[in-house]
């Protein structure tokens, strides 16, 4: 098993960062040729998923999540912390904090148009740690 942390900074809510190359580089550095890699973000307002990282979907996914957890809706969470990010927690919970991807010969077994992305669901800029664990 091999583990590394990635560090990224985000600037705004629903910013998507393609981390595919960074993850693949961690797999390469691990020296493990075949197995799985888990990508996990600690915290409750960040999310990890896969997407075709292209302008249309970079627009469509945030628009869909806005319909599911609207910015102007009432969120009970805000009564506790008054931080205005109740919707951020809902969106991140729906997407999830981690994924696992198989790899072979040191290469991620993603589809042709599939990239691994971090999605900033919080309402403010953040510095994020992403834990990448390679097993094989």
The count of β-strands is 8
The class by helix and strand makeup works out as alpha+beta
Over all CA atoms, what is the radius of gyration? 16 Å
In CATH terms, the superfamily is YjbQ-like
What is the CATH topology classification name?
Answer: Jelly Rolls
Oligomer: single chain
Stretches where pLDDT is under 50 for at least 5 consecutive residues are none
Distance between the termini: 7 Å
Strand order of the largest sheet: 1-8-3-5-6
Task: Estimate nothing, just give the exact number of structural domains.
Answer: 1
Share of helix among residues?
Answer: 25-40%
Strand content: 35-45%
CATH class: Mainly Beta
- Please count the helical segments: 4
Explain this structure:
This protein has helices at residues 20-30, 55-68, 77-81, 86-95; strands spanning 2-10, 16-18, 34-40, 46-51, 98-104, 107-108, 115-120, 126-135. It is of the alpha+beta class. The protein has one domain (2-135): YjbQ-like (Jelly Rolls). The strands form 2 sheets. It has a 5-stranded antiparallel β-sheet with strand order 1-8-3-5-6, with helices on one face. Strands 2-7-4 form a 3-stranded antiparallel β-sheet, sandwiched between helices. A hairpin with a 2-residue loop joins strand 5 and strand 6 (107-108).
How is this structure best summarized?
With 136 residues, the protein is of the alpha+beta class. The protein has one domain: Sandwich (Jelly Rolls), CATH 2.60.120.460.
What layout of secondary structure does this protein have?
Blueprint: E1 2-10, E2 16-18, H1 20-30, E3 34-40, E4 46-51, H2 55-68, H3 77-81, H4 86-95, E5 98-104, E6 107-108, E7 115-120, E8 126-135
Antiparallel strand pairs: 1-8, 2-7, 3-5, 3-8, 4-7, 5-6
